[in-house]
What does this fold into?
Amino acid sequence: MRSRRFVHVLAGVSLVVLALAYLPSFADPASLRRWTKEDGPYESVGAWLFLLAAAVFALAYSRSRRDARARAYWTRRFLLGHPGLLALACVLLLACLEEISWGQRLFGIKTPDAIARVNRQRETNLHNLEFFHGHGQDHKRKSGWELTHNLDRLFTVFNMTLGVALPLAYRRARLRAPLQRSALPILTLTVGALFVVNYGASKVLERLAREHAVVEIKECNAALVWLALGVAELVRPED
It folds into this structure.
């Protein structure tokens, strides 16, 4: 019961911070772009939040070695704990490294010419490659097949699936046992639902501000939600 109250408080605090983070959307376009620029406040904070979230999920994975839920997985012969938590830690670490272009600017590493030619910002990362970008060279949004490999959209699907869809499915009695036997992590819906709030707010404010820069705030907030989900996983009682 105590952990449940803590999770509700955690979700409430996260919601308030998430809402406050969108305040620059109401400022003038120049100020919004300054806050969300490359290596600016939002991108830097987002990278740190992804890193912290990865560390917290790594701790949750270590803790899951003593958890009966983890012992129900077929991968128990190969891994010491819940494989889904370890995979999440790796994905979130990858997101952090992508945000800082794999330390390129920190260490003054020049982008290889082969990558610079196909990277929208001439950086050493994946999410700004032409193939994964959501907008074409003419700044118009791509459509159809081209949007199926847009990393921003894929990350949104990833967030909604793990943060909302799977926890909802787990509440169905007939799906609970199959999900327990899978290697999928079942996270806290109370916190994961914030992904829906974040996505909806970003779409509304992007239209009001008429600035694509709002997406940078959405990404930073997504990192915040992942950190909150990791903390919620740590306080979950062991079976």
Observations:
- The chain has a mean pLDDT of 84.
- The chain has twelve helices and no strands.
